[in-house]
Amino acid sequence: xxxxxxxxxxxxxxxxxxxxxxxxxxxxxxxxxxxxxxxxxxxxxxxxxxxxxxxxxxxxxxxxxxxxxxxxxxxxxxxxxxxxxxxxxxxxxxxxxxxxxxxxxxxxxxxxxxxxxxxxxxxxxxxxxxxxxxxxxxxxxxxxxxxxxxxxxxxxxxxxxxxxxxxxxxxxxxxxxxxxxxxxxxxxxxxxxxxxxxxxxxxxxxxxxxxxxxxxxxxxxxxxxxxxxxxxxxxxxxxxxxxxxxxxxxxxxxxxxxxxxxxxxxxxxxxxxxxxxxxxxxxxxxxxxxxxxxxxxxxxxxxxxxxxxxxxxxxxxxxxxxxxxxxxxxxxxxxxxxxxxxxxxxxxxxxxxxxxxxxxxxxxxxxxxxxxxxxxxxxxxxxxxxxxxxxxxxxxxxxxxxxxxxxxxxxxxxxxxxxxxxxxxxxxxxxxxxxxxxxxxxxxxxxxxxxxxxxxxxxxxxxxxxxxxxxxxxxxxxxxxxxxxxxxxxxxxxxxxxxxxxxxxxxxxxxxxxxxxxxxxxxxxxxxxxxxxxxxxxxxxxxxxxxxxxxxxxxxxxxxxxxxxxxxxxxxxxxxxxxx
Length: 580
Prior knowledge:
By secondary structure, this protein is of the alpha/beta class.
């Protein structure tokens, strides 16, 4: 017996289901997210192409829900924990007819690389539609933004912003009697390395310094690079009393100093570097992060002022000194604007006759009286005031030369002017000198610029070029304080010098210290061999002058003849003593 069944309706239903599935797949393929469609038992009904691109898994790789979990979470413990949480969430959503809230999950792709994804689900009838959004790029971008915001890109150390954040946390948690400490470190003479060997070598040194600092402290301490050639070390729980904390910080500080004194090997060459370190100890009773940073900066500057390659603890007296320095800077600016500065002149003698003078800057403050150049010249260098101050000196000296040119007894005098390193190195220095000579009417051959050895060694070729250009117009050059720096025939031969000046520290003890006497004789012999005049500074006694005369040094200046005096007194001295 043949039983015939009409299956037209069933075929029509199956065709409709195929069309619906096709339309569903087409729809899911258009979605900009990865999609996984699961049956109630966890079997994979389908996944779209975007899901395969995100994870590397296709439907053939995921025969059931368990296969998906095993691939996405290879670690059994993590897989079991996440599966349980996911199943609880899906059952709850199924019974309540709602969606599974989105959450961030780390999924291991077919390439075994973890990716952060935002995963959410919703029940569609008896099937669970799960969506996947790759957050890896966003997370990477967020991490990059955080790195840029909180870390130094060169050394990977925390930057100033993150250092301040951690200081704030330390202030909250450093409860008495516990103490914390901040060390601020500044590399000595780092600019010289950058200028002479290039910024690439400087960056290399900074990275090596960072490595050594990290090796000197505990893993939970913070080593930061606030900027430039400055580093900071934040130490937690350094002692239950100020004294104990200072002792601990001194031990750590000395360890750091010793480590950074060791030579650095860069590109096969050995380089030595030191640092100056300021230290301040604090607890939760401190006022603010700003106060701590201010104190440690003051201590660091004191370390530099006391000779570098050392550490200094903050002392309240440093605030007083800083306030005085700030007030002095304000007064200097006002003094320059109000004409409180003037030039004094110390005569220079050759074979018994006054042939020249050295122009020396003096500041007559209306309240302070005469302020020592030893106080205001270094500050002028630090603040940049040396540039307008140096230009004022140059102009005043050239005006004086022009005035002397109208007096027969003074017309042949040469005037020596000290030039600071920052002034000499600034762009346009040669044009500045020539312009000043032209505007004042002074004769270039009567102007002598006194330079220091350290200034010239900065860039011998550039120094020689600048000097040669000015020399072609008649300007002379003297090397000041010779013998105290890096005296070397190699650069003396390359520079268009006219004169060497023996530093007064050698002249002072020339009669009692055999070493000083030997140095003076050597400088005289060196000057003679190079065809340079040699002048001695700081001659105070007849015996010192006699020693110089015996060794054929006839040019000198010092208190034996006169202290530096105002222009009128100098002119009277020349007329009384005799001049060229």
